[in-house]
């Protein structure tokens, strides 16, 4: 007797829910469009799509499919972090600024927005994005105390 292969999360879904999951990936993870493609009414598609993504069976199938896609593309968190560091490094490169005649004006620029976004993305993944801001009145001005993580000793 052969052993029965355990069903995947996707295989456990009803046919209509499978349509939704398939459409969700075909529609670039747009739940509203996926709901319409799966046969739900356009009038209620936004609510229905959002609701569908709260069902544990559907999220398990979506997570399963996402993992399959990442595996096929040979993408893991190490790859993502490595690429993010490369983007940050590129954004941090200083680029000389020239005037209209092509003369170096002695100023340099870099992509601070791209670098900051990359750093924030990595910090968020590593759990380093939690910060607190304490505002303390000091005469006519303000004093801000910024910390990387809340200090439990102050509670």
Structure description:
This protein has 6 helices and 4 strands. It has 155 residues and is of the alpha+beta class. The strands form 2 sheets. A two-stranded antiparallel sheet has the order 1-2. A two-stranded antiparallel ribbon has the order 3-4. 10% of the residues are buried.
Whole-Å distance between the termini?
63 Å
Beta-strand percentage range: 15-25%
Question: Biggest β-sheet, characterized?
Answer: 2 strands, antiparallel
The dominant shape is elongated
Give start-end ranges of low-pLDDT stretches: none
Query: Can you count the beta strands?
Result: 4
Number of domains: 2
Number of helices: 6
- What order do the SSEs take from the amino end to the carboxyl end, as H and E? HHHHHEEHEE
In angstroms, what is the radius of gyration? 25 Å
Structural class: alpha+beta
**Mean pLDDT over all positions:** 82
- Kindly report the spatial arrangement of strands forming the biggest sheet: 1-2
Share in helix? 40-55%
Lay out the secondary structure:
Layout: H1 15-26, H2 31-37, H3 45-52, H4 56-72, H5 77-92, E1 95-98, E2 104-109, H6 112-125, E3 132-138, E4 141-147
Antiparallel strand pairs: 1-2, 3-4
Helix pairs in contact: 1-2, 2-3, 5-6
What can be said about this structure in brief?
The chain is an alpha+beta fold and 155 residues long. Helices cover 48% and strands 15% of the residues. It has two domains: 15-72, Terminase, small subunit, N-terminal DNA-binding domain, HTH motif (Arc Repressor Mutant, subunit A); 76-155, no CATH class.
